[in-house]
Amino acid sequence: MKKINSLRAAWLPLVAALVLAGCASSAVVPPVADVPAQFKEQAGAGAQPVAVAQADGPWWHVFADPVLDTLVERASTDNTSVQQAAARLAEARALARTADADRSVQLGVGAGASRQAGIDRTTDGRPATLLTANANVSYELDLFGRLSGASDAASLDAQSREALLRSARLLVQAEVAQTYLSLRALDDERTLMRETVEAYRGTLTLTERRQRAGDLAELDVARVQAELASTESDAVALDRQRALLEHALGVLTGQGASAFSLPATDWASALPVIPAGLPSSVLERRPDVAAAQKSVMAAQARLGVAQTAWFPSISLTGAGGYASPDLGDLFKWSARSWGIGALLSLPLLDGGRREAGVQGASARLDGALASYREQVLVAFREVEDQLVSLRLLETQSTVQARAVTAARRATALSDSRYRNGMVSQLDLLDARRSELRNRRQALQARSARFQATVGLIRALGGGWEVRPPQPLASAPVVRLSSSAPSVSAVE
Questions:
Q1: pTM (2 decimals)?
Q2: What is the CA radius of gyration of the chain?
Q3: Tag placement on the chain: N or C end, fewer CB within 10 Å?
Q4: Parallel, antiparallel, or unpaired for β 271-273 and 476-479?
Q5: Which CATH superfamily is domain 106-141+314-345 in?
């Protein structure tokens, strides 16, 4: 009796320590990132309107373009990248259910037949037949959190995949919007090139008439012919660019390039000004940052699981059924059999396997933390990039609008003076080249503002409640603020 008491006194502290160690496993907490008080591009701009977060909000409606709305909504479901991300999410959820199933009672039934000799000495070495039919039940006691930790890690992986699905959908939506807006910008640029080609043809007709009358030399005709051919070549290059964008848009919306077409039309999309809000809202809205955060938490949970390898595992088992040498007697009450058991397993010497597992899990956690920090840094960089782009592009567009106005005036004056013989044809061609160059640069600056706006929406995570602007024929700029939006027309 004293021996039993001494053994109990020796083992109870160890068992208590193991239980406490299991209960004191590290909790899974989200990582914390350093967030600036405001974006650098908003310094000195006063209070900024805060965008209200809205999961998977239709942010593309701010452009007030029904064709864009249709394309983005189609791509959100039919794009192959989105479908792949959805399949990976379904797989992660299935793995999470598998990990969670290990925490439940396991029940199974079985039947067997065997013939053996030499094992049961009561048969005098003669072969004997044994038929069995039974049910088995097992349950592992999760005293140290190994199973719950694995289940939590799998669940966090599924949440990370869900965030990656939202990230893939947002990326595809942004690509569709940028491709579509680039295509519409090319439509306007092609219209400009056709107008320029017609103007050069008119100049060529006038020049050839004056050359036949002896007022101009053949050199003047050759100059106009060269300008006309060069402009026609640029127009063909724009046609090629548009065709490539149209094909890309078809693939983004889940359609074949041969079956997709988008007729050219006037570019009447509205240009909104998106409120960046507070930097902390970026971490709340960006799905890729949320995915990286969930990956860190899953790595934390797996580190806890690796640490539980030092503790024993305890399983409870039970079986009940029938066993008989004759099939006719198998299910008789006298042939019943049952058994219960408990199994405790604790490796003592494993060659450093458990320590290596803990070190590997710790290294994966360090990598996940570094990846999360990188994702946060990239998120803030993308926001700053688009904010500075929009600020400078707005200034560029204002300056370029003045250049277009001056170039148009110069062309009109040069054309009038050329018709009256007061300037040379070379002066007129130079004026027209200058006007064409400035008008194309104005279109490209406007297109760049649309691209940067979509880029800012994607950098901010998309999906907030805004008041959609009304489309105007003069391509309005809509400024969203806490008060009523003000609308100003731009070229």
A1: 0.80
A2: 37
A3: N
A4: parallel
A5: Outer membrane efflux proteins (OEP) (2.20.200.10)
